Amino acid sequence: MAETFENGANKKDLNRETILEIAQDIFSKYGYKKTTLDDIANAVRKGKSSLYYYFESKEDLFQAVILKEVDVLKQALEKVVFRSLDPEEKLREYILAKLRTFRSLANLYNALENDVAAIGFIDEIKEKNAKDEFRMIKRILIEGVRRDKFNIDDLNLTAMGITTAMKGLEMPLTTGSHHDIDIELSVDNFVRILCYGIMKRE
Q1: Phi and psi dihedrals of 31, rounded to 5?
Q2: What are the backbone dihedrals phi and psi of residue 45, each rounded to the nearest 5 degrees, phi first?
Q3: What sign for the dihedral angle of Cα 45, 36, 16, 110?
Q4: Per-residue pLDDT tens digits for 70-101
Q5: 71, 79, 156, 187: which has the highest count of C-beta atoms within 10 A?
Q6: Residue 107 CB neighbour total at 10 angstroms
Q7: Tell me: the pLDDT tens digits for 116-132?
Q8: Are 145 and 158 in contact (CB under 8 A)?
Q9: What is the CA radius of gyration of the chain?
Q10: pTM
Q11: What's the CATH fold of domain 1-55?
């Protein structure tokens, strides 16, 4: 009986994951507003009633998709934060990972940058995302100060400035008119400005 229950649970998890993957693709192509549960049900090749077995509504399904993408982004960034790298290189790799990952997470990017049908949970995700970003950047800066690589008087202000500047780069370097430019070169230039400023050196 236990084995049967376990197999049933595994099948349910597999079905839910399949629906999530297909919904993720459809939402990214057509956006939240234009996508219907019928669209997703047809792509999954199941009746719409089958979707309601796993998700209460289109919003519930979209939230599951967004949370899945949030987890992908968080794992990619934390992997960099906990690597053994020189602080300047870690800052570079963090920004690079953020931009590259965003390119592959269209739903999350659109949800964070646009007002998606005034969905309540998006504001919570935005707030949490901003706090996590600030925390991870500040951690890198603290490490740089401790290793005598960075000279920073105000860690909070510096972390806030970097996260704000990064946010300004996300749209042009991931989905905007400059999305086809060399991200690595752009990040190299950005980190050089962050670490050494724009003053001409003798």
Answers
A1: 85, 165
A2: 65, 45
A3: positive
A4: 999 999 999 999 999 999 999 999 999 998 88
A5: 187
A6: 22
A7: 554 678 888 888 889 99
A8: no
A9: 20
A10: 0.80
A11: Arc Repressor Mutant, subunit A (1.10.10)
